[in-house]
């Protein structure tokens, strides 16, 4: 199949492409998406503009994740894990210090971190300014993650503005997250193919018989890493097989950039297990790869600010999972991240960007044909 034919293929998620591919033993949520976690909202915006005399081609965007509608007053327990630190996640020091997340999570390009940070404040200030004094007399450290899209987007044009973040927060919903060339993943590359945004979820049954005693683990990835030869699907060396056929016609691209992943789940221990899903697909955490994972749980409402005496310790009732029973959640985390990355690859479309550089989408027809001997 030629690259031009591959670029015209209908895109689909990996489960539709390879219905016999084993992606773990746990069922997905109804949408197989981040928003299967109750209360989590998301919105994606793409900024795509042709080259002009003032700037080159722009292919970038913003993904906005709202852990819960009242994120300002009710925090989530959270944890951060850094597999390789060539990247940025603002607000992570506070999350590591307290284990709490009380900010939206915005994913965008590396040069837009400041605009996204300001945008979160521009959303919160008019809604939470002190009505008597007019002061913003509260504590909020915005959480912004980035990956580099400057290969096929004029990142120096600084197209992302705080207004994009305000719009994303205002429009966030519980609809299934759009995938591929969308949101912060619009201009991302993955294994030398077009990468982008991907998502998946798993439902792990609890010890009780009630559906309410199940646990939903979901992942959203901004996939932007890797070399073609390292790509694996269900353990099959698809990248190596494609390498011989496609490399002669592929323009030179950098080997690694960054992957930022979000897990709506239990904290730092689950964030660590996201690395298993990344490794299954061929992520090796190279030197310039920013592999950063944030996990949060919506199971408990934690007041951000209370009237309690800060000098008199007092207990707070929370529901916690017995750590002796957590293995299923670890497994589901790896499965969801693996599938989210594959969904990003399968849904992304061929894109032509900065300087006319053309990045091909993963050739789904060829992949399906190659996978027949492995399934």
From TrEMBL:
Superkingdom to which the source organism belongs: Eukaryota
Gene Ontology molecular function, alphabetical: aminopeptidase activity
Coiled coil: none
Pfam families associated with the record: Peptidase_S58 (PF03576)
Regions that span the bilayer: none
Family under the similarity heading: Belongs to the peptidase S58 family.
Name the record gives this protein: Putative peptidase family t4 protein
Record lineage: Eukaryota, Fungi, Dikarya, Ascomycota, Pezizomycotina
């Amino acid at each position: 199949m030629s690259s031009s034919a591959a670029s015209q293929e209908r895109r689909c998620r990996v489960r539709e492409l390879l219905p016999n591919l084993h992606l773990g033993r746990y069922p997905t949520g109804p949408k197989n998406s981040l928003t299967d976690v109750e209360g989590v909202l998301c919105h994606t915006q793409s900024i795509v503009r042709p080259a002009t005399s003032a700037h080159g081609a722009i292919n970038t965007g913003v993904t906005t994740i709202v852990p819960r509608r009242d994120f300002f007053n009710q925090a989530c327990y959270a944890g951060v894990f850094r597999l390789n630190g060539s990247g940025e996640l603002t607000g992570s020091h506070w999350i590591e210090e307290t284990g709490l997340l009380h900010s939206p999570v915005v994913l965008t390009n590396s040069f837009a971190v400041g605009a996204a940070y300001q945008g979160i404040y521009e959303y919160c200030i008019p809604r939470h300014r002190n009505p008597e004094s007019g002061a913003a007399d509260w504590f909020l450290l915005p959480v912004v993650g980035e990956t580099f899209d400057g290969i096929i987007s004029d990142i120096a044009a600084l197209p992302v503005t705080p207004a994009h973040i305000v719009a994303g927060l205002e429009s966030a919903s519980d609809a299934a997250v759009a995938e591929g060339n969308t949101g912060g993943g619009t201009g991302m590359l993955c294994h030398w193919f077009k990468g982008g945004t991907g998502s998946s979820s798993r439902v792990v049954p609890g010890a009780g018989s009630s559906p309410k005693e199940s646990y939903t683990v979901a992942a959203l990835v901004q996939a932007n890493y890797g070399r073609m030869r390292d790509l694996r699907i269900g353990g099959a060396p698809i990248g190596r097989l494609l390498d011989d056929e496609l490399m002669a016609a592929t323009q030179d691209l950098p080997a690694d950039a960054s992957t930022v992943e979000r897990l709506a789940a239990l904290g730092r221990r689950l964030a660590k297990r996201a690395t298993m899903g990344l490794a299954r697909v061929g992520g090796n955490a190279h030197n310039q790869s920013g592999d950063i994972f944030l996990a949060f749980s919506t199971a408990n409402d934690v007041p951000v600010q209370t009237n309690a005496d800060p000098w008199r310790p007092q207990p707070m009732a929370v529901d916690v999972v017995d750590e002796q029973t957590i293995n299923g959640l670890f497994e589901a985390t790896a499965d969801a991240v693996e599938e989210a990355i594959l969904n990003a690859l399968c849904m992304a479309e061929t894109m032509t960007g900065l300087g006319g550089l053309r990045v091909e989408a993963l050739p789904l027809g060829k992949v399906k044909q190659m996978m027949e001997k492995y399934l």
